[in-house]
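Course assignment 3, question 2. Fill in each field.
Student: A.L.
Task: Predict the tertiary structure for the chain below.
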Amino acid sequence: MTEQQYIMWHERFIPTRWKIGGKILGIVVLVVVLSVGSLTIFNYRTLSSSQKTATGDALVNYGREAVQHAADIVVGSVDALESLALSPSMIEAVTAANRVHAVRDPVELQNEIRVLDQAWQNGSASVDDLVAQIEGNQVSEHLRQFMNTFPDEIEVFVTDIEGLNIAMTGRTGDYLQADEEWWQGTYAGGQGAIFISEVAYDDSVNAWAIDIGIPIRDRAGQSVIGVLRGTVDISVVFTTLSRIKFGETGDAALLDRNGRVLYARDPELLMQQAPASVLAHLKSGKDGWYSNQADITGNPAIVAYNFLEGELADVLGWVILLDQDMTEVNADIRATLLKSLIVAGVVAGVLALIGVWAARSIASPLVSATKQARGLAVGDITETDTQMDERWVRRRDEVGELLRAFEMLRTYVREMATHARQLAGGDLTVAVQVRGEEDALGNAFDQMLAYQQAMAVAADHLAEGDLKVDVMPQSDRDRLGNAFKRMLAYQQTMAAAADSLAVGDMSVYIEPQSIQDRLGNAFVQMIAYQQKMTEVAERLAQGDLTANITPQSERDGLGNAFAQMVRRLREMVGQVQQHATQLALAT
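Answer field:
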């Protein structure tokens, strides 16, 4: 690429070097691109914000129902166990057991309980009858029927006021339950309270379960007389959560009050502490959502969190997490944005076509006007091949006004050119139409015409021999006026000299203007000639016939006449002398 080619290529990217059509089209394209770009960015931010808000709010609303539904399963188990604790047969059985213990020596009773509990834990055969008795009583049968009705119950058993088993669906690990946290939480120092344990894995049934303790009260419903405990399989809760699907990537997780993961789709997360970044959002204790941060699996997502509400909220302390990956959320945004871009592209295309039409509608008349301006610049005032489209001239916009003004200019220049041609041909009858005081060219033409007319009048007077005409030059630089003035003065000098010569005044002095001054030199020669003839005439008048006269030419009538007269006078004088001599000799 040569330097010239590089310059031409580089200038294509310099807007100031573009033609008007390119500039207009460039502006339209720039405006369209900026508008579409700005609109796209604005739409993206707006859509992103609205989509995130809509997704977050939807997850919160969905999570509120989901966590309540999960808790309802536990609430149902609690309600069922509470109903079981109100069973008259159970109250009667617990009351009967308590009456037996009431008549025993406390110290003796505690020692016996210690021995039996140890044997129970060791699986000693010494307590087999006791185990069989407890498992075989009517209350235990009632408990098994209860489990058949409520299959989520893994284990159910009843203790008396001492914490000893009096009924059970299967052999427990301990005989004495009073030293267990769940029993103490349920007995609550004799006040009685519902106790729900943390979720734990039950190896006996290979399921995640919770222990629910229900106080058993006397017939009056006042005093706590025993404790009913049920172990509930909460796998059904997890199954319910596993069915939650929000979009393609939506997922659910359940946390306990300590931030442990009770349920997640990834088994490796179970019973693990949730990430600190997630727990930080739960410190407020209020439902909410966050976005563009990691969920419990570490994926960027929108995460909604809902705290359990209701009567068991303080007991369970569950928090449900619902999340949807940002890739899916952004995919929806991109899809919507793509539709917007398609619409914007169509609009941009229409605007671009309008820009092309607008550019051409402005550039085409200007190109035509430019051609005519170039023609006027070189003196071409013809209309061929440069006639403007009448549609352009009739336009009511600024372009139309410009073209009409240009047409007026061209008409004006054509008119001035016609006047100039007429003046060049000597036609001083031209009538210049001056447009106004601001018409510099028209006023100049008018002044020039008036000046030339004045010079023509002066020339007419001079041609008729009128030397009284008065010529006033316009300035020192008025060559024609000053030339006329000098010519008039010269002719007046010649006329005065001619007048003097006409009355015989030979003292006239004439100084020719230059060697080329034929009239002045001719006058000088004529005066010299006439002075010579006068001198000859004076000598002849005095009888001096020795004067030598040389005619100027064969057409010199005066000189030839004088020369002939002198010759004849000499001949006559000679004849007179000869006759005088002959007469003298004769006498």
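Instructor remarks: The mean pLDDT is 84. DSSP finds 17 helices and eleven strands in the chain.
Grade: pending
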